[in-house]
Amino acid sequence: MTRTIRPYRPEDLPALYDICLRTGAAGGDASADYPEEDRDLLGTLFAAPYAVLEPESVFVVDDGHGQAVGYVLGTADTAGFVKRFRDEWLPTVADRWPAPDGEPATPSEVMASLLHTPERMVVPALAGYPAHLHIDVLPDFQGAGNGRALMDAFLGSLAERGVPAVHLGMLTENVAARAFYDRLGFHEITVPEAGVLTYLGRATS
């Protein structure tokens, strides 16, 4: 059966958690970085809140059998999303992953710290790019145009809603991802004290 790009459905949520974990180490499998009880942490931070709070901004690669094997997800309004994350999403997961005391010492603690500080997503240098996104595709389905098709669906959806531009933050070390974004017309945005991240942006149309 032919792979297709389609809107997210609620039954895709477990797959979003799985994809996020299996691509969470600069594009590679991050499963070994987290104990079993924390395997859902990456998805809780970078995938599920978008699907729950803004499902209209989520698209998946369907393998032809109903299984999601890649996704693009994000928000049309970063500032508004951050408020909803704080008010609506965080209370549902905070007890499972409390904010660490002191400096985070493990990958789980680093992610838990990020979970409890959603306001970090509001960056003044990115004000001209109000939307943001995350995109991940399982390795077996990369290199076949799926990433570009996902991005076309997401950008088209934003453009239809009058959103002018979008940004993303990526690990600078992920050179394969950078090459992908460059091919799609993203450009680097100077963000002070970006640390291990590089920020990219582009117009939605």
From TrEMBL:
Keywords: Transferase. This is Acetyltransferase (GNAT) family protein. InterPro entries: Acyl_CoA_acyltransferase (IPR016181), Glycosyl_Hydrolase_84 (IPR051822), GNAT_dom (IPR000182). Pfam families: Acetyltransf_1 (PF00583). The keyword Membrane does not apply. It comes from the Bacteria. Residues 3-205 form the N-acetyltransferase domain. GO terms for molecular function: acyltransferase activity, transferring groups other than amino-acyl groups. Gene3D superfamilies: 3.40.630.30.
